[in-house]
Automatic annotation (TrEMBL):
Domain NAD-dependent epimerase/dehydratase per the UniProt entry, residue ranges: 5-199
Protein name listed in UniProt: dTDP-glucose 4,6-dehydratase
Species whose genome carries this gene: Trinickia dabaoshanensis
InterPro entries: Epimerase_deHydtase (IPR001509), Lipid_A_modif_metabolic_enz (IPR050177), NAD(P)-bd_dom_sf (IPR036291)
Family matches, as Gene3D superfamilies: NAD(P)-binding Rossmann-like Domain
Pfam families in the cross-refs: Epimerase
PANTHER family the UniProt entry points to: BIFUNCTIONAL POLYMYXIN RESISTANCE PROTEIN ARNA, PUTATIVE-RELATED
Record SUPFAM superfamilies: NAD(P)-binding Rossmann-fold domains
Length: 256
């Protein structure tokens, strides 16, 4: 296969699970981080390490232009260790900036480099109040107030930028992830209204790469406040998907 994938946020919780999965399925992965101390881990997972800041628009554009990826995956967040409650208010603002300004930089750079497919991480708890479970046609909570408004505005900006790929002759896929738990997430067990294991989230990203569709997908466990039936039907995703031992993920996938 040897398709090039530019994975923004390769050292994050989902990126850490996704990188070796993409590598095992034959993709040439260029994984980004803005921290030098995380580059070795990215290389150890089988990817090329790329040191770049999403807010450095010029360097980001030049980097993607040089790599010429066929797929760009956006898995960037900026969360405190163990989701420390006393640090979350600042994290909300940082994440909103990543979702708005950072996504604008990433999508613009991808389009300028001729990349036709962008897959991006969104969230499943930005829907307006209504009758649950929410499907992807339910509106976002644009009338939210306070910290929630900061989050929803950022999410709406991210999704507009990603879905604009569809209007430019490409494919933009939005993955509305539930509340993550599992390795590197700060949660060991399911929590929140729409729980999701981080490894199942990584599988959803891989499947979105393999099945390009220009639309949003809810990605959460059964019984959540959202329904993920669309992802199950269109992508073949399941909430119980986990990483396998080395060299067995493809055989497990083939047996589905």
């Amino acid at each position: 296969m040897n398709e090039k994938v530019f994975l923004a946020g390769a050292a994050g919780a989902i990126g850490t699970a996704l990188t070796p999965l993409l590598v095992e399925f034959g993709y040439e992965v260029y994984g980004t981080t803005r921290r030098l101390d995380r580059t070795d881990a990215i290389r150890a997972a089988g990817a090329h390490s790329v040191l770049v800041d999403i807010f450095d628009r010029e360097t980001l554009a030049n980097t993607i232009e040089c790599i010429q990826p066929s797929i760009v995956i956006h898995q960037l967040t900026d969360l405190p260790p163990a989701l420390a409650p006393n640090l979350m208010s600042e994290a909300v603002v940082r994440n909103a900036r990543i979702r708005s300004e950072g996504t604008a930089n990433l999508v613009s750079a991808a389009r300028a480099a001729g990349c036709k497919h962008v897959v991006a991480q969104s969230i499943a708890w930005a829907y307006a109040p209504g009758v649950a479970p929410y499907d992807e046609s339910h509106p976002l909570d644009i009338d939210a107030q306070g910290a929630r408004a900061v989050t929803v505005v950022g999410v709406a900006a991210l999704e507009r930028w990603v879905l604009s790929m569809n209007e430019a002759g490409g494919v933009g896929t939005v993955l509305r992830y539930g509340n993550l738990y599992g390795p590197c997430t700060g949660r060991d067990a399911p929590e929140g209204a729409s729980p999701l294991h981080v490894e199942a989230a990584a599988w959803a990203a891989l499947l979105a790469v393999q099945h390009p569709m220009g639309c949003p997908f809810n990605i959460a466990e059964d019984g959540a406040q959202v329904t993920s039936e669309k992802a199950k039907r269109a992508l073949g995703w399941r909430p119980d998907m986990r990483l396998a031992e080395p060299h067995t993920a493809q055989s497990r996938y083939a047996a589905r």
